[in-house]
Amino acid sequence: MLKRMAIALCLLASPVVDAARVAVPVQVPVQVEQAPSKADVIKALSARRAHNLASFRAYRNGGVYPHNNVRRGPLNVWKDRDGHLCAAATMIDKDGQHDLVAATAKATNFIRLLDVTEGPLMDWILTSGFTIEEIDRIQEPMMMDDRDEPDYQVADANLAKDYAKTDTWLVGHAKASLDVAASRLLENPGLARRLVDGTL
User: Fold this and answer.
1) Which terminus of the chain, N or C, has fewer Cβ atoms within 10 Å?
2) The pTM is what?
3) Residues in CB range of 85: below 8 A, 6 or more apart
4) Hey, how many other C-beta atoms are within 10 angstroms of the C-beta on 164?
């Protein structure tokens, strides 16, 4: 009798669980960015390469380059005191990234793009159609000679010659470079997808 009363008291003391009120963890599906095919990425990068190469050619044929007014020897000059942009900055500017070019000039005017590892500049490099090594060739450092009055005409002429060699190199290595550029871009599937979809 005592045992039955103890069981009854335990049942009365136990909370009644309303099955309808029990919180069940909701399984939210994780959205994984679907990477495009490498062939599609190469096709998109090829179009980007042609666009940016045209900007580079217009720049080098124009013959107006920034000058190194800062120190003797070579120096990457993004934008000089006269407002002239380097070849890489010009390509980015012609690509519609005016604010990025202006912000870079203000924050790191002597930047070397080979040293960039992340951020908007890296995104542009990855989607430019060029490898970062090719961008480094295009971003030729500006020279200041040891004269008291530097001869910028000579410096510009030398740059024009180097740019012509770079142009030839870019054409000759296009296929291999696009393959490398596509592999690197595919390490960022979201960015690759936006390039292919035209939503950059």
Assistant:
1) N
2) 0.80
3) 66, 78, 79, 93, 101
4) 13
